[in-house]
Amino acid sequence: LRRQQDEEQRLESQHQILRYLFEGRLFFPPIQRPTKILDCGYGRGNWALEMAQTYPDSEVTAIDVYPTNELPDDQPDNLEIEAWDLNQTLTPTYKPNEYDLIHSRLVAPGIKRDRWPRYIRDIVRLLKRGGWVQMAEFYYIIQSDSGLLTDEHALMQWSNGYRHTMEQDRDPRAGRHLGQLMRTAGLSDVQEVTYRMPIGGWPTGKALRLRVPHAERTWGHAECGCRLGAWFV
After folding, report:
1. pLDDT of residue 216
2. Which pLDDT band, with edges at 50, 70 and 90, does 62 fall under?
3. To pair with 72 at 20 to 30 A between CA atoms, which of 9, 98, 155, 156?
4. Which of 37, 83, 43 is nearest to 60 (CA)?
């Protein structure tokens, strides 16, 4: 199925949010020039496209259950776009010990709750020895420093309702578990970082005025696993 235009715009907004919060960095693991890159859940294709353009000598493969309409006509030759359901086992379709950087972000709404441990193990199998994985997930927890956000507030009710709906067979708190899942899958030196994401007009200075409440970024290493969890409130 092709995505509607408003969905494409939502995915574009998500990419810009992460670019802002990550200060323009595409990835955080200490790898100089990745050569084989896999992007799981590419969304609109922004990250994969920028990686292919930034590292023209690399091979970038981007997979998602839905194809995007928005890739440019002059798509780089080193970028391959493929359809794949991340709830399905990644191997042997994608070769073990093949990639030195795997990127996965904002897939929690699509990944089934009981799939997460196997999904992380699949990713670890695909990594070369010494390879890295970076992951990012939104976490929809609304908080207020002023204490004005009550349980009756519409935004709080939306947040609670969204999480309750996801909990039927998804894990809205998946980002909080990524570190332990990575360790269990055999990664080490796992790290995480939390970010606050401003909503509305209350922050001073340059701020994001967003509808998206909370997220988590992670990255990991095949021998020295790292997790960066980025939470946006």
Report:
1. 56
2. very high
3. 98
4. 37
Q: Using CA atoms, how far apart are residues 99 and 81, in angstroms rounded to an integer? A: 16
State the number of CA atoms in the 13 A half-sphere of 67 facing the CB. Answer: 8
- Using CA atoms, how far residue 75 sits from 68, 78, 80, 81, 127, in Å, is 13, 8, 9, 10, 25
| CA pair distance 224, 101, nearest whole angstrom | 13
* Spatial distance between the Cα atoms of 42 and 82, rounded to a whole number of angstroms: 10
Domains of the chain are 5-221 (3.40.50.150)
Residues present in the chain in total: 233
**Rounded (10°) angle between helices 174-184 and 116-126:** 50
Per the DSSP assignment, residues forming a β-bridge with 61 are 38, 80
